[in-house]
Design goal:
Number of helices: 12
Number of domains: 2
Order of helices and strands: EHEHEHEEHEEHEHHEHHHHH
Radius of gyration: 20 Å
Number of strands: 9
CATH class of the largest domain: Alpha Beta
CATH superfamily of the largest domain: Spore Coat Polysaccharide Biosynthesis Protein SpsA, Chain A
Shape: globular
Structural class: alpha/beta
CATH topology of the largest domain: Spore Coat Polysaccharide Biosynthesis Protein SpsA, Chain A
Largest sheet: 9 strands, mixed
């Protein structure tokens, strides 16, 4: 697989580099690694970037020998680890999965074929499921066909189900090292401004949701960063994000496993907060009135 894959040449298929950033991911790392090494695509380079694991993660990774390239960068953030991995990559096409996510069979082949059929697309993405810690399906990830307005309202791309051109990634400046939670959403927004990405219908990955998941475990910080990204790119934070944040602050619901109890205070706070953080107050008021305080963002 990755250790013996051919280098790029006019006769070989495009080289695909997959990067997994990990820190103390011993519970999940073997599942992620094996989902990459089991792919049927013939030209894959796989790089694992470790942030200084102390739990046996790298012993597992190294047991796969030269099928995986390893980079150890202690103390790095996820964005820094990914940037380092892709800086060392030799692929024409990039993808990344976290240690608790995984590809389904045929994922890379499906993505490469879609990119070949859509030469202007900076990235392509398939469908995916949410699963729990044991791999049991929780439901579909809310992936949607690309639309610029929709992307500005919610993250319609599932990160492990997305593959992007190396050239487009470098032109966009890579991942923003200042971001810890919304780094993928921020990248999709920036890449989509060069040309439209393309969604394809194959289910190719799963995203694991569990209490130790960074986005769920630090929900408030994740919401706040996502709202900053939306303000930076669009100058506007939509109602769904504001009410989900308000619900989390008031009743600690994670808006995924735990639904908010709602209530008058939550509804009124989502109005007040939205008017404070948005310059376009009339737009937000209309948005709030249209939803009447009952929307929720589950991404």
């Amino acid at each position: 697989m990755s250790g013996s894959a051919p280098e790029n040449s006019p006769q070989s298929p495009p080289r695909v580099t997959i990067v997994t950033p990990v820190l103390d991911g011993v519970q999940f790392i073997a599942r992620a690694v094996e989902s990459v090494l089991a792919q049927d695509y013939p030209n894959v380079e796989y790089i694992v970037v470790d942030g200084g694991s102390r739990d046996g993660t790298m012993e597992i990774v190294r047991s796969y020998g030269d099928r995986i390239r390893t980079i150890v960068l202690e103390g790095t953030s996820q964005a820094q680890a990914l940037n380092a991995g892709f800086a060392a990559a030799g692929g024409d096409i990039f993808g990344f999965i976290n240690a608790d996510d995984a590809y389904l069979p045929g994922a890379i082949s499906a993505a490469v074929a879609t990119l070949a059929s859509n030469p202007a697309a900076p990235f392509v993405y398939g469908e995916a499921d949410h699963v729990d810690e044991g791999g049991s399906r929780l439901g579909p990830y809310p992936v949607e066909p690309y639309d610029a307005i929709s992307l500005g309202m919610r993250c319609i791309v599932c990160q492990p189900a997305a593959f992007f051109r190396a050239e487009a990634f470098r032109a966009a400046g890579g991942f923003d090292p200042a971001l810890n939670y919304a780094l993928d959403y921020d990248l999709w927004i920036r890449l989509s401004r060069t040309a439209s990405p393309v969604k394809f219908d194959s289910k190719i990955a799963f995203s694991c949701m569990h209490p130790g998941n960074k986005t769920l475990g630090r929900r408030r910080a994740a919401y706040e960063e996502s709202m900053r990204v939306l303000r930076r790119h669009y100058g506007y934070v939509p109602y769904d994000w504001v009410v989900a944040y308000s619900n989390h602050v008031f009743d600690r619901s994670d808006n995924f496993f735990q639904e908010s109890r709602g209530g008058r205070l939550n509804v009124l706070s989502s109005l007040a907060l939205g008017l404070v953080i948005n310059r376009h107050r009339v737009r937000y008021l209309r948005d709030w009135l249209a939803h009447r305080g009952f929307g929720i963002n589950r991404s």
